Amino acid sequence: MEPGLQQAPQLHTEIISWFTANARDLPWRRPGCSPWGVFVSEIMLQQTPVVRVLPVWEQWMKRWPEPSALAAEPSGEAVRAWGRLGYPRRALRLHAAAAAMTDRFNGSVPATREELLTLPGVGTYTAAAVASFAFGRRETVVDTNIRRVHARALSGKALPAPALNAAEMRLAVELLPDDDAASVAWNASVMELGALVCTARSPKCAVCPVRQRCAWVAAGEPAPDYVPKGQAWAGTDRQVRGALMAVLRQAREPVPRNLLLGPADLTTAAAATDNNTATSSAEADAGTDAAALAKLHALQAPAEQLERALAGLLADKLAEENDAGLQLPV
DNA sequence: TACGCGTGGTG
DNA sequence: TCACCAAGCGT
């Protein structure tokens, strides 16, 4: 990694030039976008692809053009508007961050990394990214794309380490241009290169602006020295929670617990009459989506797992319990 | 430090 | 098809 630092100036020039010609036209990058717009985009983009964020971001900014507007509404509305972006706790944290901005920062997005770090849902990456992209400050932005570009171009490895480490952070700090504007351009450019060209699975080295300088290419593109750990899904509480969330998100009135916890009653009722007509009407009466409910029941999760998953939702305040059953806060 | 956290597109 | 992967965070 050290040797590559000598060509940092060339890397800056070539990657920033590539960005100028090839960057995607994303709404949160446009000159008129507010710091709040940048902030919202950064939270939504945590572990979620750009194409899925775009439509939700547009609707979000139209409905809540500034932090105080979001803070004025119940958190459940944020969860609903979040839709299927995933990790719905991010919606709660974004709502809480808007409340904190309203209370502690005069209704504005704070401009410094230190202040940004005090907001819920804002960690090392997001604080640096917002300070850099929304406020033009010189901050070292390190995300998964940037780590991968650094690992390949400078360290000659196929993939970065499983977790961000001190050596990577030092390298990123040393690579950051001194000039404020150049540092912002560099952050955005390396990230975009990692997202569009230096991708995880099938890097497009043929169109890479720095392929001649890439340590990984020079080393003959060696394979990763570790096996990425998979994300377990089938049969997990997480899967059950996701199915529960899909039902609760669109429900406009309390959802009875027994409707969520098992199809037993419905099966009996349906069998007693004829087909699933009874099931459909029962679900319609509860204001729930039949398809979402069917997916939940199709998992055939054990009752104790359903209870545990439901408790997990309640613990995160994604739903509130009342006499009638369950619903999102309204 | 390692793990859990949603969702859907894709090679 | 089915793991892998995606602008991380909090514990």
From TrEMBL:
It is an enzyme of class 3 (hydrolase). It comes from the Bacteria. GO terms for molecular function: 4 iron, 4 sulfur cluster binding; 8-oxo-7,8-dihydroguanine DNA N-glycosylase activity; adenine/guanine mispair binding; metal ion binding; oxidized purine DNA binding; purine-specific mismatch base pair DNA N-glycosylase activity. GO terms for biological process: base-excision repair; mismatch repair. Its cofactor is [4Fe-4S] cluster. Its EC number is 3.2.2.31. Residues 44-196 form the HhH-GPD domain. The keyword Glycoprotein does not apply. It catalyses: Hydrolyzes free adenine bases from 7,8-dihydro-8-oxoguanine:adenine mismatched double-stranded DNA, leaving an apurinic site. Belongs to the Nth/MutY family. This is Adenine DNA glycosylase. The lineage of its organism: Bacteria, Bacillati, Actinomycetota, Actinomycetes, Micrococcales.
